[in-house]
Amino acid sequence: MRVLVKRSGETRFAAPEISSYGDEAQLQGLIKETPDLLPGVDGGPPVVVMREFPLSIGRVDVVVVDLEGGISLCECKLRTNPQARREVIGQLVSYAGALSKMRYEDFAQRASDRLRGSLSDALAAVAEGEFDSDAFRSALASNLAAGRFRLVIVIDEISDELRDAVLYLNDQTETEFFALELSYLRDDGLEILVSAVYGQEAVERKTRLRRPRVEGADTVIVAAGQAYDEYTRRNAYICQPTSTPQPEKTRTFRQDLRRLGFYRKKQIEPKIPKIVKRYDSVPFTAEEAAKRSAEDDPDDSRLGRIISDDLADPNTRRTRGSYYQVFLLTAPGDPATLSLDQPISHQAPFAWTQHQRYTLEAALETQPASTEALAAAETTAGGS
User: Fold this and answer.
1) For residue range 56-110, what is the model confidence (pLDDT) as tens digits?
2) Is 294 helix (H, G, I), strand (E, B) or coil?
3) What's the chain's Rg over C-alpha atoms?
4) What interhelical angle do 104-115 and 133-146 show, nearest 10?
5) What distance in Å separates the CA atoms of residue 23 and residue 206, rounded to the nearest whole number?
6) Strands 71-77 and 176-187
């Protein structure tokens, strides 16, 4: 790949001033600060990131742990490093083998040393209180015992040899193996990052086999340690904040959703409200509250009142000036709200979700008593 740049007023394209990283530590830092560059992390559960994670055979460049106990191991290489061909694959596999022999307590202690604080506390912080520590412990321990990790080679320019090896391993093994190519350019203060992922297709295919995708899903169920109580008071669901108004930085949900439900305390709550309106990026400021409250649209006015109430509440979890994704929902007693005869229980030791999961309204209408019965109903109702 060759990139040329030309600024406004200039007549000719020219090569950028810098077209490579200074060292591999820059790649590590880039992943640490922007983990959603990683395949499988973008749009997934919130994560914590650790550099130079210690194992018995060496240090992994970057380890990423998500709310649902998923673990990504990342090794960062520059194309000029002789290890950036076959050797880096063996290095990652060796790290995975060493990690698979580790107990949860040991992993959590090493993570806490790198984070300079408890792993559970760090995850609870990014989860905004929607975090089941016991379920996380069970899920992560299960992934460690099973050697179930996501392996990622991060490189500035991938060779044909490495690309072909990554694609082959994904096709022939159950392990999720990616290569993430991050080309870097800088010219007169302008920085450009060009990313490409290799292995995504095969990994998505294996993921669908492990947890079948619910085709045509029209309902999202969110983890809701505190959010369900807020829904019963305010008939709304407010996601975690971002510091930017860019919609692509907010939590990712499928389009065309009809309903939103809540999972907490090992059950899906029996009230499944209808989504009245969805706002993807709303600043929680007094100015925004006043502007929305003055609108003729009743939904906008209702959003304005929600913002005003939050700003006036001394115990609010919201940060003034941050941007939030907001779902306006039907009330628990509204006829449009789907009311189940009982909560849907989840008996497995790990959480049904610590983030969000999709299902079908038609499957919920069968009144399943358990998440196992819900999964069976999804298949009957049209899920795959």
Assistant:
1) 999 999 999 998 899 999 999 998 888 887 899 999 999 999 999 999 999 999 9
2) coil
3) 23
4) 110
5) 34
6) unpaired
Can you state the percent helix, strand and coil of the chain, rounding each to 5? 35, 25, 40
User: CB neighbours of 201 closer than 8 A, spacing ≥ 6?
Assistant: none
- The Cα-based distances of 325 to 246, 283, 322 in angstroms read 11, 9, 10
**By three-state DSSP, how is residue 271 classified?**
strand
Asked if residues 95 and 73 have their Cβ atoms less than 8 Å apart, the reply is yes
Long-range contacts of 294-303 (CB under 8 A, 24+ apart): 299/328, 302/328, 303/279, 303/328
Q: What is the pLDDT of residues 268-318, one digit of tens each?
A: 999 999 999 999 889 999 999 999 999 999 999 999 999 999 999 988 888
Q: In this structure, what token pair is assigned to residue 372?
A: 């196992």
Apex CA 346: angle with CA 255 and CA 278, to 5°? 20
Distance of CA 177 to the CA centre of its chain: 18
Tokens of 280: 């993807």
Q: CA-to-CA distance for 42 and 382, rounded, in angstroms?
A: 27
State the Cα–Cα distance between residues 268 and 290, nearest whole angstrom. 36
Can you give the pTM of this predicted structure?
Answer: 0.72
